[in-house]
Amino acid sequence: MEKPPKPNVDRRSFLAGAATGAAAALIAKQTPAAAQPAAEEAAVEPSAAGRPASDFMVDIFKSLDMEYMFSMCASSFMGIHESVLNYAGNRNPQSITCTHEEISVAMANGYAKIAGKPVLVCAHATVGAQHAAMALYDAWCDRVPIYLVLGNTNDAADRQGEVFWLHSAQDPAALVRDFTKWDDNPASLTHFAESAVRAYKIAMTPPMGPVALVVDEKMQEEHAPADARMPKLSVPTPPAADSGAIAEVAKLLVAAENPVIVASRAARTPAGLALMVELAEALQAGVVDSRRRLNFPTRHPLCGGSVAEADVVLALEPGDLSNVARQARQRNAKVVSITATHLFQRSNYQDFQRYAEVDLSIAADAEASLPALIEEIRRLTTGARRETFRQRGERVAEANRRSFEQARVDASYGWDASPVSTARLSMELWAQLKNEDWSYVTGWVNWPLRLWDFTQHHQYIGRAGAEGVGYYAPASVGAALANLKHGRISVSIQPDGDLMVAPGALWTAAKYQVPILIVMQNNRAYHQEVMWFQRAALKRNRSLELTQEGFGLGNPNIDFAKLAESLGVGASGPISDPKDLAAAIRRGIAVVKRGEPYLIDVVTQPR
Amino acid sequence: MKPLLAACALFSLAAGAAAQSARTERAAIENGERVYLSVGCQACHGTVGHGGAARRLAPNTLPLPAFTAWVRNGSPGWSLASGMPAFPPSVVGDADLADIRAYLASLPAPPPVAEIPLLAP
Fold it and tell me: Using CA atoms, how far apart are residues A359 and A328, in angstroms rounded to an integer?
């Protein structure tokens, strides 16, 4: 059987990427790399013998620098798909087959968080969108740009039989409108062109998020007119805080005795991570990172702080701030928030969290606002304050050093236990990763974040935005695909229940030779729900005997190594003895360095 | 001769009592581990009481009265969403609870962190 085309970078480039240093490539671009043709130089060939409109559509996607098209194939976007394969030569975008639309979107989520840009995702308007919905909601909550094209047959007269009617809708995007920023159903190719570019623009403007573009099947088959042109793209600059707000915040922070910075999605890009370090160091303030992205280097002396003792809290793209704000009010502390979510929210899904009573609320993108804030802080910081800051920084650093020491001690408990402790698993991995260019693409286990040395933005991309189960496996494959050109070793600690939602992600990793080391956190139950059940049953003074019946993932135990091998992924395990980990990980990394995925099934402690 | 026989008898009784006590203690530990796992303590505390979603239970296990009170009352303000729930006697009886405590108290301390190369800073 002929092997499918590999992803856009060949293996030699993958291996060489680590040596040449791909720092420039790490910087996320706001605008696509492809040159934009001028209005007078539309790169569209004259329509002579019937150039299909979908060729022109793919030209638009190329101009948006779409590297891949993730899809579970479907008739409703066959025109686009055929154009990708035959007209575009299956390159930029390259077609990547997924076995479920949830995988397509979650892969696109992981990819975007590494690459800083979306891929093209295509799905049927009805059944495809329904499958994709949870992953789309994950991306919405996580502020990730997803570019979703939904194929539909708009005109009833064009629906050729029962299945066409089942797969068509009057308003296909209605299903996902509550968790997309924008959607459209263009009525002409000119309309499509403008909407396609506008959709990208909206998706990539903070707060970033998914967009949906419905494309009529018949339109894809029409002839592209000779004068069809691609609109010029200009992505808005991210909204930054105004100078008055900056001045007020800087004054508060410089005057504070114990300011603390809290961040959730502050560092959108690697540049954002560097700015966070500058900010913290300018103030000598601790940073509490809830790590929906990597906002701060984990072993930096200022990583960590006590919000409970802060007199000023600066919250940058925070999650739920309501408790912090309530507790601050009780001790007369001030809370300032800078977040772009104030600029765009919907109301049905309650991801916006409980109302937080803050003192100063700035509607702006945190990363874009940091340069001006840092400059103003530095301007206001005079000699005496500088010494106060230095002493504060020493106290924060000492507290964080003790916290790190405690984490090491905590990790030692259960060190030799079987099933394997998650601390042991994490540190066995770290021992073999720490000298590589690595990326912890997904993982529910927190030990890496407590003990590994995270210094670069791509080394961690957060969790599922809506905590939807079924995100981790595909997102990790998508992130690994984005890491491929940089020669990074992608590693995930994969929850067992999550993999069972969409195991087809492994097949996609195998088919396209996506190098990723997947280490199973095989704890054989949905343990979060086990705890809920225990509390529910005990509150009612009832038995716990049926816990495994309701929430166990054993009996029979899932053989993840065999599952992976059946899907084309090399694998080993199950491993229950921690002494067997080192050799298995060594083997796995060797396979990944060859450019292939590999899975190690490890039977772990519950948490 | 009689004192020697008496001493031997006493020694046998004491040895027998010690052996019985050791068997009883072993049985208690084994039962404690069994109940610990069947009731589901490991879901939050780990199979060897090393912690996880909740606090570490071993070594330095609470004395039995405090341990019992903690299990019977749960953590203050526990709810469906958080905290340690209260375990009534109908779910785990006093004798089994004592055995669980014995199991946890029997677990050895881990090696010092300095002796674990993978945990070197």
Answer: 10
pTM: 0.91
8 A C-beta contact, residue A423 and residue A415? yes
CA-based torsion, A522, A297, A368, A340: positive or negative: positive
CA angle, residues A166, A172, A176, in degrees to nearest 5: 120
CB of A434 closer than 8 Å to CB of A453:
yes
Residue A190, classified by CB atoms within 10 Å of its CB into exposed (0-12), middle (13-18) or buried (19+), is middle
Q: Is B116 on the interface with A (CB under 8 A)?
A: yes
pLDDT score, position B3:
78
Do the beta carbons of residue A233 and residue A63 sit within 8 Å?
yes
The answer to whether the Cα torsion of A171, A173, A175, A180 is positive or negative is negative
Query: Does B50 reach chain A within 8 Å, measured CB to CB?
Result: yes
Q: What ipTM was assigned to the predicted interfaces of this complex?
A: 0.88
Q: What is the pLDDT of residue A197?
A: 98
With vertex at residue A473, the alpha carbon angle to CA A207 and CA A58, rounded to the nearest 5 degrees, is 60
Query: What residues in chain A have per-residue pLDDT under 50?
Result: 1-4, 9-48
Other Cβ atoms less than 10 A from the Cβ of A314: the count is 28
For chain B, residues with pLDDT lower than 70 are 1, 12, 14-17, 19-20, 23
Using DSSP's 3-state secondary structure scheme, residue A444 falls into: coil
- Please report the pLDDT score of residue A99 as a whole number: 98
* Closest Cα in chain A, distance from residue B13 (Å): 38
**pLDDT score for B20:** 64
What is the per-residue DSSP string for A294-308?
Answer: --S-TTSTTB---GG
Q: How far apart are CA A381 and CA A521, in angstroms?
A: 48
Q: Is B51 on the interface with A (CB under 8 A)?
A: yes
Q: CA A178, A321, B52 angle in degrees (round to 5)?
A: 95
Residues of B in Cβ contact (< 8 Å) with A419: 47
Q: Which of A485, A505, A554 is nearest to A525 (CA)?
A: A554
What pLDDT does residue A49 have? 53
- Chain A residue with minimum CA distance to B80: A535
Length of chain B: 121
pLDDT at B8: 72
Instruction: Tell me what percent of the residues of chain A surpass a pLDDT of 90.
Output: 90
Q: Which residue of A has its CA nearest to B119?
A: A408
Each residue of A129-172: pLDDT tens digit?
999 999 999 999 999 999 999 999 999 999 999 999 999 999 99
Q: How many angstroms away from the CA of A55 is the closest CA of chain B?
A: 53
A288 φ/ψ angles, rounded to the nearest 5 degrees: -100, 110
CB pairs under 8 A between A and B: 98
Q: Give me the pLDDT at residue B17, please.
A: 65
Widest CA span of chain B, in angstroms? 72
Greatest Cα pair distance, chain A, in angstroms, is 79
Q: Which residue has the tokens 């892969």?
A: A107
Q: Which two tokens stand for residue A60?
A: 């638009």
Of the partner residues A422, A525, A539, the one whose CB lies closest to the CB of residue B85: A539
Give the tokens for residue B107: 């677990």
Residues of A with a Cβ under 8 Å from any B Cβ are 404, 408-417, 419, 421-422, 424, 427-428, 430-431, 451, 525, 527, 530-532, 534-536, 538-539, 541, 543-544, 547, 605-607
Taking residue A140's Cβ as centre, other Cβ atoms within 10 Å add up to: 25
pLDDT digit string, tens, across residues A500-521 = 999 999 999 999 999 999 999 9
Contact A459, A440 (CB under 8 A): yes
